[in-house]
User: Which sequence fits this backbone?
């Protein structure tokens, strides 16, 4: 514990020294994607994160004005927007561009309509000069341009490499330090014990006038106590803690990097992974927790009451974390609300959708014995490393984790079909049927007020604009209004994703062998990942059903389920099979996930999770990275302290 604290302090001091060397202060959170409107005569000072200064210079032509049009390459099917017009006679101006995505620029002469289009990807805090002029040869008018780098851009990835380097060094030093400490402690205790035993023997020999003493039943030398296999799936705690750690990091700001933020509409970023992984992990744990309660004699009705209670608590916590004191502006949907709803409906499927007895028949000595439990598989004991204590559905072979629950699969698939039917068949006034885009200026402005299609329309009818999220990630790029990515329609697909997690949990509950578990996890992961990729056409935009976290589209949950299977398989191999990693430090927040998550939401803007060392508001990636990593590390440290004190809080 002390060693960990010292290493953490060294990391903090080194990072602060790095930032001070770069001449950077410690800012608060900001919207890193904003850019200046219009064209100015002077460059902006000081340099702003995720921006570059470009001077446009209209060279000595008295022929015509030239207009600049721009569109981001990440804005799907967007029209070019007019930025400014520049007169001839060597007029120039400065414009601040965002550096997050490549840009398409178009220069057009206002009289001759001569034009030139080119892709421009400026580097962060770089300064560029773009000169252009119109020339006329006989009847042909050309518009020529040239780009010059005035000030080289900075290496925006440097803070990432520094952070990963420090954390990687800590990951190496920490286990080595623990190993050496435990080794020295064992040597010291063994030496101390032998000295004490020898002293006792000498005292007894003196009392017996030098007669030899044989070890008695009261001797300190005792046989080692046999260890029992651990029943907790540590790899699941590790996966849950990893997801939670990344979630807190991106919620705190993710160092200001666009790939640590949610995707604008379609596609995947790091931030898009963690929420669906959590839903998947929740499903994995359900067969295990339900089986444990069933083993204690808890009835199906009591399990239903517990599930309802837990779902209502999660929903209530989510509403509390989302909102302030103005009830008329409360946002109803949210992250914990989605957890609660998904958990409840999957519980209903597990508890009340029957498992047919003819599909759960086992080969036992008594061939007339049947399995009638609706919620669970036949495993009585969960052993992470595999081994005895678990039974297979011998009659079902490779499909032992599927066939007994075929009716439950049908119930979950029906929910998926409902999502598809509503999404593609529901008529949305002014938008038609089947629209899946962000609206606004996307799709060439044809669906301006249609953000999310049927999903957005349903939320507007049920909740109204005052009770949904009004700052979606697509707002700035696509010029949209309110849209809630955790809206009602997405519950259907998140329930199915949670059910796929249940299927994953049943693999551990049904198959005792390590090899059987690993093979099935890999097969399921590849299958769902490939299925989702086919649906989106292996591309970000333009497929049949794009991968969209904003919609929780079918392709999105399939790919997330696939990565969930594979990530859990990797953790299982490293932690529970090969035992080369004990899951630290991620397993600690994974064992107190609800406390850590709620704490991060409530305390996000308090020290030490958020701080600034200067009144000047000028955020940089290095200081934001330091701030966010420190905030996450403190929560990991707090969860470790809770683990040491055996404090575990669950709902």
Assistant:
């Amino acid at each position: 514990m002390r060693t960990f604290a010292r290493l953490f302090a060294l990391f903090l001091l080194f990072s602060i020294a790095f930032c001070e060397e770069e001449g950077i202060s410690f800012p608060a959170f900001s919207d890193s994607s904003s850019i200046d409107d219009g064209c100015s005569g002077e460059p902006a000072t000081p340099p702003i994160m995720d921006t570059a200064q470009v001077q446009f210079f209209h060279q000595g032509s008295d022929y015509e004005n030239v207009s600049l049009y721009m569109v981001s390459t990440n804005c799907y099917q967007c029209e070019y927007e007019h930025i400014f017009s520049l007169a001839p006679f060597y007029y120039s101006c400065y414009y601040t561009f965002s550096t997050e995505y490549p840009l398409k620029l178009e220069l057009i002469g206002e009289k001759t309509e001569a034009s030139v289009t080119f892709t421009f990807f400026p580097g962060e805090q770089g300064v560029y000069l773009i000169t252009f002029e119109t020339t006329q040869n006989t009847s042909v008018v050309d518009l020529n341009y040239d780009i010059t780098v005035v000030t080289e851009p900075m290496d925006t990835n440097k803070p990432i490499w520094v952070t990963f380097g420090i954390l990687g060094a800590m990951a190496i030093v920490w286990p080595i330090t623990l190993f050496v400490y435990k080794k020295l402690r064992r040597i010291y205790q063994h030496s101390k014990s032998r000295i004490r035993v020898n002293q006792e023997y000498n005292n007894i020999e003196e009392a017996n006038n030098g007669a030899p003493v044989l070890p008695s039943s009261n001797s300190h030398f005792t046989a080692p106590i046999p260890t029992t296999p651990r029943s907790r799936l540590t790899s699941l705690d590790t996966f849950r803690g990893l997801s939670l750690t990344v979630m807190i990091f991106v919620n705190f700001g993710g160092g200001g990097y666009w790939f640590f933020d949610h995707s604008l509409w379609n596609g995947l970023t790091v931030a898009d992974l963690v929420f669906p992984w959590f839903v998947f992990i929740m499903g994995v744990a359900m067969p295990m927790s339900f089986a444990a309660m069933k083993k204690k004699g808890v009835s199906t009705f009591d399990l239903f009451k517990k599930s309802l209670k837990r779902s209502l608590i999660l929903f209530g916590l989510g509403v509390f974390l989302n909102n302030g004191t103005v009830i008329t502006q409360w946002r109803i949907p949210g992250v914990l609300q989605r957890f609660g709803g998904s958990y409840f409906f999957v519980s209903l499927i597990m508890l009340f959708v029957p498992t047919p007895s003819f599909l759960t028949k086992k080969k036992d000595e008594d061939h007339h014995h049947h399995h009638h439990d609706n919620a669970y598989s036949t495993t009585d004991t969960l052993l992470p490393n595999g081994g005895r204590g678990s039974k297979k559905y011998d009659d079902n072979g490779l499909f032992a984790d599927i066939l007994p629950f075929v009716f439950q699969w049908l119930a979950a698939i029906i929910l998926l079909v409902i999502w598809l039917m509503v999404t593609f068949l529901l008529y949305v006034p002014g938008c038609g049927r089947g629209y899946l885009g962000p609206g606004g200026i996307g799709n060439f402005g044809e669906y301006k007020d249609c953000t999310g299609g049927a999903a957005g329309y349903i939320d507007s009818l049920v909740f109204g604009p005052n009770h949904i999220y009004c700052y979606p990630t697509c707002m700035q790029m696509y010029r949209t209004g309110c849209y809630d990515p955790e809206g009602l329609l997405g519950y259907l697909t998140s329930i199915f994703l949670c059910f796929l997690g249940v299927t994953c949990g049943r693999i551990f509950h049904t198959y005792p062998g390590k090899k059987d578990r690993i093979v099935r996890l890999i097969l399921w992961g590849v299958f769902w990942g490939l299925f989702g990729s086919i649906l989106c056409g292996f591309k970000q935009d333009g497929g049949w059903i794009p991968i969209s976290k904003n919609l929780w589209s079918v392709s999105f949950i399939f790919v997330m389920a696939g990565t969930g299977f594979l990530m859990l398989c990797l953790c299982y191999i490293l932690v529970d099979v090969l035992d080369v990693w004990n899951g630290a430090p991620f397993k600690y927040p994974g064992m107190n996930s609800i406390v850590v998550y709620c704490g991060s939401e409530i305390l996000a803007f308090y020290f030490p999770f958020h701080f600034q060392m200067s009144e000047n508001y000028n955020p940089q990636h290095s200081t934001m990275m330091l701030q966010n990593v420190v905030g996450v590390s403190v929560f990991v440290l707090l969860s470790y302290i809770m683990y040491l004190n055996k404090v575990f809080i669950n709902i």
In short: Confidence is low (pLDDT under 50) at residues 1-37, 217-229, 362-384, 387-395.
